[in-house]
Structure formats: structure tokens, C-alpha cells
TrEMBL record:
UniProt keyword annotation of DNA-binding present: yes
Function field: Involved in the transposition of the insertion sequence.
Alphabetized UniProt keyword annotations: DNA recombination, DNA-binding, Transposition
Xref: SUPFAM superfamilies: Ribonuclease H-like
One term of GO molecular function: DNA binding
Protein name: Putative transposase
Length: 175
């Protein structure tokens, strides 16, 4: 309930076509069966969209791209890894010229998986696809709200931003 409100507030200020989107997928096991968690991350490392599928093909990539573009608008540059499904899906949408791939260009998305993996290990895996989807979207919203890049700000600015984030969190009636 509160995650939707957080997401709505953050997305309203994020719709800019000048930003870069980093797209990546990761393997997640649900009851011993391999599933894929597709994630879209902006240029600052905030998770924009999470989507769970059973397959890692053009159809799944197309569905994920359409969902991300509908919510967050189009962007000038889409950074992906070399998975051919992205190229095929972007070609179908008509945005193949916006795709950028390279050896280390998608590190922003790869590094966004780390906090999720830590929590996944603590939870001892997932049982259903639906619970994974709910957890991924909720985790992204809360992580985006409370996480600040400490190395990019002075201590006083970090404390101020952290206080504002906690005040917003408490204003939602959660804590």
C-alpha cells in the first residue's frame, strides 16, 4: 500500500527523455526452477522497474520494455548487455538506434542486483513468482527512498537527506 505512494511520488519527477536507462536480467530460483527478474535502472542507480518472467526471450523483453516505457517514458539511450532479445525487442518498438552495449557500460544495472541478492539469501529463496514480483517492486521502492550515495555528498548533506527520507517514510504511517 505504501510502496505505491512512494513510487507515484518518485516517478512523477523522473520522466525525462535525457536520462539513460540500464536494463538487465538476473536468474532467480523459485522452488528449484529458474526464473528471470528483469530490471530497469536509471543513470543514478535507482531501480525504476522490476518484472518477473519464466523465459528470457524476445517476447519477455518486449513486454518488459513496453511496461517500463509506459511508466517512465522514452529515453535517448538504453544501455543493455549483449543479450539478443533486447536488440530484437528494441527493433520491433523502433528504438534500435537508442541501444548501447559495451563491455562495462551496463555495470550500473549489474551493481543494482547486489542488495537484492543479499536480501534474497536472508529470506532463504522464494516460493512463488507472485511473491517474488511483490518483493522486488517493494524492495526497489524502499531501497530508492532510503539509499543515498554516501561518497557523493558531504556528511551534513547526507544527514539532511537521510532525515528527509525518514520523515517521508514516517509520514506514510509505516514506522
Amino acid at each position: 500500500m505504501f510502496a505505491a505512494e512512494i513510487r507515484r511520488r518518485r516517478i512523477s519527477g523522473m520522466k525525462s527523455s535525457k536520462w539513460r536507462r540500464h536494463l538487465d536480467e538476473m536468474f532467480v530460483k523459485i522452488n528449484g526452477e529458474r526464473h528471470y527478474l528483469w530490471r530497469a535502472v536509471d543513470h543514478e542507480g535507482e531501480v525504476l522497474e522490476s518484472f518477473v518472467t519464466k523465459t528470457r526471450d524476445k517476447k519477455a523483453a518486449l513486454k518488459f520494455l513496453k511496461k517500463a516505457m509506459r511508466k517512465h517514458g522514452r529515453t535517448e539511450v538504453i544501455v543493455t548487455d549483449r543479450l539478443r532479445s533486447y536488440g530484437a525487442a528494441l527493433k520491433e518498438i523502433g528504438a534500435a538506434h537508442r541501444q548501447e552495449t559495451g563491455r562495462w557500460t551496463n555495470n550500473r544495472a549489474e551493481n543494482s542486483h547486489l542488495p537484492f541478492r543479499r536480501l534474497e539469501r536472508a529470506m532463504l529463496r522464494f516460493r512463488r513468482m507472485r511473491s517474488l514480483q511483490k518483493f522486488a517492486s517493494l524492495h526497489a521502492s524502499v531501497y530508492n527512498l532510503l539509499n543515498s550515495e554516501r561518497s557523493l555528498h558531504s556528511r551534513s548533506n547526507f544527514k539532511l537527506n537521510r532525515a528527509v527520507a525518514l520523515a517521508e517514510w514516517r509520514g506514510l504511517g509505516v514506522a
